[in-house]
Amino acid sequence: MRAYDIILKKRNGNALSKEEMEYMVLGFVKGEIPDYQMSAFLMAVYFQHMNKEERAMFTEIMAHSGDMIDLSPIKGKKVDKHSTGGVGDKTTLVVAPIVASLGVPVAKMSGRALGHTGGTIDKLESIPGFQTSLSLERFFENVNKYGIAVVGQTANLAPADKKIYALRDATATVDEISLIASSIMSKKLAGGADAFVLDVKVGSGAFMKDLKSAKELAEAMVGIAKSHNKEAVAVLTNMNQPLGRFVGNSLEVLEAIYTLKGKGEEDFVELCITLAAWMCYLAEKGSFEKCLEMAKDSLISGKALEKFRDFVTAQEGEGEVIERPEEILPISGKIVEFKAKQEGYISTIDTEKVGIACNYLGAGRSKKEDKIDHSVGIEILKKIGDPVHKDDIIAKLYISEKSDLETSLKLLNDAYTITNHPGEKWNTILEVVK
After folding, report:
1. Is residue 262 part of a domain?
2. pTM of the model
3. The dihedral of CA 9, 15, 17, 23: what is its sign?
4. Of the candidates 321, 354, 382, which is a domain's last residue?
5. Is 233 helix (H, G, I), strand (E, B) or coil?
6. 112 and 16 belong to one structural domain
7. What is Dmax (Cα atoms) for the chain?
8. Is the same domain home to 220 and 340?
9. Which among 37, 49, 236, 238 could bridge 426 via Cys, Cβ 3.0 to 4.6 Å?
10. Domain span at 152
């Protein structure tokens, strides 16, 4: 078998066998197939795509290239949630406690920030003392005892995907549906959950800018899950404006605590309740409608807040953050206001630019080695459809001495469009794919 023949076969639009896929993927991981041949293979896939069977095989091979986590020591049906990435997306911090409070074990491995989207692990590390690295034994113990644990991904989870993604990033082959879906689902399968709720973001702040491509990705990921005998539901959600009110690590933890106390923003609460309900539904806690009511009750009654307290203290975080988040979380006291330059309505927001502006303040990374500043971020005061007068405050920037304030303000200025008419408001939940 030769890499040349496999590349040629795919370039000509023919389906590959599992043996051919394994030869390429595992050969590349071992260093037997050079970058230039794998690059050619990825470009062939980019133009010719993969069929349903190829996607399933490609995903399985990448998943099995490293550790396969066995979650059987954890009691109950394990349902994982995954977001394709957005701006102000702190949903795990609210959804996980809701679900855990309803008897569904949450054993979650999350990532860090990269690009314009935030990372759950970075947000949790805003809480003083919080440990995101636990031994597997303690991870299982926490889930069985408290119903919830969230840790960083292990170094050897789907290593083939990590190596291939780095090459995709350098060869303009990132945005192909089969490659995106298999990349996400290889890590999900390796993580060992029984079922998945996939939050597929759509809009200016998402990887998928339009509903059609987002639905294709959702269908591909659900299809891969089903081909491996796993249940999955994909929820297409609005990312045409930042989610909730805050963007930035400590600020998003602050907002999550506000939400768990019943003071959340409407769009954020709706998304959290919906995702939690689907997780409970897949865990066989009842009909979706019943699960929706259970999730609402958990939030209103304070059960989810108490579960969040258990979760934080179990991972050595400062439990007092629940009572005094503004004091305990590292939040910058230096604030700069971004104001409207004219009267009118907020008609559009380029949400990706808002995320990048937050990164220039120091909240994100351009490469994995970069250090982030948990104290900085952006508070969104005006969203699509809101009326503004000249000099009204649209957003507040929480900055540090190292923040590139000039670039951040320029990006926000470019991100917001003010016209004489309100812009089109999208629903928070756009569609569900099962």
Report:
1. yes
2. 0.94
3. positive
4. 321
5. strand
6. no
7. 68
8. no
9. 238
10. 79-157+166-321
Does residue 172 share a domain with residue 303?
A: yes
What pLDDT digit, counting tens, does each position of 306-361 carry?
A: 999 999 999 999 999 999 999 999 999 999 999 999 999 999 999 999 999 999 99
Are 355 and 291 found together in one domain?
no
Q: Are 378 and 395 in contact (CB under 8 A)?
A: yes
Q: What is the CATH classification number for the domain harbouring 188? A: 3.40.1030.10
Residue with tokens 């440990």: 131
Burial 370-384 (b: 16+ CB within 10 A, else e): eebbbbbbbbbebbb
> What phi, psi does 378 have (nearest 5°)?
-130, 135
Query: How far is Cα 14 from Cα 60, in angstroms, rounded to an integer?
Result: 20
User: Alpha-carbon distance 365 to 371, whole Å?
Assistant: 7
Same domain, 103 and 245: yes
Distance CA 409, CA 360 (A): 10
CA-wise closest residue to 268 among 78, 83, 79: 83
**433 within a domain of the structure (yes/no):** no
Helix ranges (DSSP H) in 134-244 = 136-146, 159-170, 177-190, 211-227
Q: Name residue, tokens 């409070």.
A: 101
Q: Distance of CA 292 to CAs 106, 201, 287, Å? A: 18, 21, 9
At residue 368, the pLDDT reads 65
359-384: per-residue pLDDT in tens? 999 998 766 667 889 999 999 999 99
Same domain membership, residue 312 and residue 346: no
End-to-end CA distance of the chain: 38
**Are residue 136 and residue 197 in the same domain, yes or no?**
yes
| CA torsion through residues 186, 192, 198, 203, sign | negative
* 91-141 pLDDT per residue, tens: 999 999 999 999 999 999 887 756 666 689 999 999 999 999 999 899 999
Q: Which residues are known catalytic residues? A: 82, 161, 168, 183, 187
Is 29 inside any structural domain?
Answer: yes
* Position 34 pLDDT exceeds 90: yes
In a domain, 358, yes or no: yes
Number of domains in the chain: 3
Q: Distances in Å between the alpha carbon of 155 and those of 111, 152, 160, 193? A: 11, 9, 12, 18
